[in-house]
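This follows on from our talk about sequence and fold. Go ahead and set the record down below:
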Amino acid sequence: MATIEECREALDQLSGNLARAEGGVRGAAALDRSLSCHITDLDRTFTGRLADGRIQVDALTPGPPAGKAQIRLAMTSDDLIALVAGDLKFAKAWASGRVKLEAGLRDLLRLKSLL
Protein backbone atom coordinates (compact mmCIF):
# COMPACT_ATOMS: atom_id res chain seq x y z
CA MET A 1 0.00 0.00 0.00
CA ALA A 2 1.36 3.40 -0.99
CA THR A 3 1.38 6.34 1.41
CA ILE A 4 -0.58 9.57 1.13
CA GLU A 5 2.68 11.37 0.31
CA GLU A 6 3.37 8.93 -2.56
CA CYS A 7 -0.17 9.45 -3.86
CA ARG A 8 0.27 13.23 -3.76
CA GLU A 9 3.57 12.90 -5.63
CA ALA A 10 1.85 10.70 -8.22
CA LEU A 11 -0.89 13.31 -8.72
CA ASP A 12 1.78 16.00 -9.08
CA GLN A 13 3.59 13.84 -11.64
CA LEU A 14 0.35 13.24 -13.53
CA SER A 15 -0.29 16.98 -13.53
CA GLY A 16 3.16 17.59 -14.97
CA ASN A 17 2.61 14.91 -17.63
CA LEU A 18 -0.67 16.53 -18.66
CA ALA A 19 0.95 19.99 -18.79
CA ARG A 20 3.69 18.68 -21.11
CA ALA A 21 1.30 16.74 -23.35
CA GLU A 22 0.73 17.80 -26.93
CA GLY A 23 -2.00 17.52 -29.51
CA GLY A 24 -5.26 15.79 -28.65
CA VAL A 25 -4.15 14.80 -25.16
CA ARG A 26 -3.39 18.42 -24.31
CA GLY A 27 -6.77 19.47 -25.69
CA ALA A 28 -8.60 16.81 -23.70
CA ALA A 29 -6.88 17.88 -20.49
CA ALA A 30 -7.68 21.56 -21.10
CA LEU A 31 -10.99 21.32 -19.27
CA ASP A 32 -11.92 23.46 -16.30
CA ARG A 33 -13.69 21.04 -13.96
CA SER A 34 -13.82 20.21 -10.28
CA LEU A 35 -12.05 16.93 -9.55
CA SER A 36 -11.94 14.39 -6.75
CA CYS A 37 -9.74 11.34 -6.39
CA HIS A 38 -10.75 8.95 -3.61
CA ILE A 39 -7.93 6.63 -2.54
CA THR A 40 -10.05 3.74 -1.36
CA ASP A 41 -7.52 1.72 0.67
CA LEU A 42 -6.36 4.82 2.57
CA ASP A 43 -9.91 6.24 2.75
CA ARG A 44 -8.73 9.73 1.81
CA THR A 45 -9.89 12.04 -0.96
CA PHE A 46 -7.87 14.60 -2.88
CA THR A 47 -10.03 17.41 -4.22
CA GLY A 48 -9.21 20.23 -6.57
CA ARG A 49 -9.55 21.20 -10.22
CA LEU A 50 -8.46 20.07 -13.61
CA ALA A 51 -7.70 23.45 -15.20
CA ASP A 52 -5.37 24.70 -17.92
CA GLY A 53 -4.11 21.17 -18.51
CA ARG A 54 -3.00 20.68 -14.91
CA ILE A 55 -4.38 19.03 -11.80
CA GLN A 56 -4.54 21.53 -8.95
CA VAL A 57 -4.99 19.74 -5.61
CA ASP A 58 -6.64 22.02 -3.06
CA ALA A 59 -7.43 19.67 -0.17
CA LEU A 60 -7.03 16.23 1.30
CA THR A 61 -9.92 15.01 3.43
CA PRO A 62 -10.71 11.78 5.25
CA GLY A 63 -13.31 9.46 3.78
CA PRO A 64 -15.09 9.57 0.45
CA PRO A 65 -15.68 12.92 -1.26
CA ALA A 66 -18.02 15.17 0.69
CA GLY A 67 -19.31 16.88 -2.46
CA LYS A 68 -19.89 15.72 -6.00
CA ALA A 69 -17.05 16.89 -8.24
CA GLN A 70 -17.60 17.14 -11.98
CA ILE A 71 -14.91 14.49 -12.53
CA ARG A 72 -14.70 11.76 -9.90
CA LEU A 73 -12.02 9.08 -9.66
CA ALA A 74 -11.72 6.24 -7.15
CA MET A 75 -8.92 3.66 -6.91
CA THR A 76 -6.41 2.11 -4.53
CA SER A 77 -3.15 3.85 -3.75
CA ASP A 78 -1.14 1.17 -5.55
CA ASP A 79 -3.30 1.50 -8.66
CA LEU A 80 -2.76 5.27 -8.72
CA ILE A 81 1.00 4.78 -8.50
CA ALA A 82 0.92 2.08 -11.22
CA LEU A 83 -1.23 4.23 -13.53
CA VAL A 84 1.07 7.21 -13.32
CA ALA A 85 4.17 5.03 -13.72
CA GLY A 86 2.67 3.46 -16.84
CA ASP A 87 2.56 -0.03 -15.33
CA LEU A 88 -1.25 -0.13 -15.42
CA LYS A 89 -3.27 0.91 -18.46
CA PHE A 90 -6.20 3.14 -17.58
CA ALA A 91 -8.66 1.61 -20.05
CA LYS A 92 -8.02 -1.91 -18.75
CA ALA A 93 -8.21 -0.81 -15.11
CA TRP A 94 -11.44 1.10 -15.79
CA ALA A 95 -13.01 -1.80 -17.69
CA SER A 96 -12.15 -4.23 -14.89
CA GLY A 97 -13.50 -1.93 -12.15
CA ARG A 98 -10.13 -1.32 -10.51
CA VAL A 99 -10.48 2.37 -11.33
CA LYS A 100 -13.79 4.16 -11.25
CA LEU A 101 -14.34 7.29 -13.31
CA GLU A 102 -17.56 9.27 -13.19
CA ALA A 103 -18.19 12.40 -15.20
CA GLY A 104 -20.73 13.94 -17.52
CA LEU A 105 -21.04 12.44 -21.00
CA ARG A 106 -19.29 15.35 -22.72
CA ASP A 107 -16.39 15.20 -20.28
CA LEU A 108 -16.09 11.44 -20.71
CA LEU A 109 -15.91 11.87 -24.47
CA ARG A 110 -13.17 14.51 -24.15
CA LEU A 111 -11.27 12.48 -21.57
CA LYS A 112 -11.43 9.41 -23.80
CA SER A 113 -8.26 10.49 -25.60
CA LEU A 114 -6.41 10.42 -22.27
CA LEU A 115 -7.29 6.76 -21.85
Summary: The two ends are 24 Å apart (CA to CA). Residues 38 and 45 are 4 Å apart (CA to CA). Helices lie at 4-20, 23-29, 77-85, 90-96, 105-111.
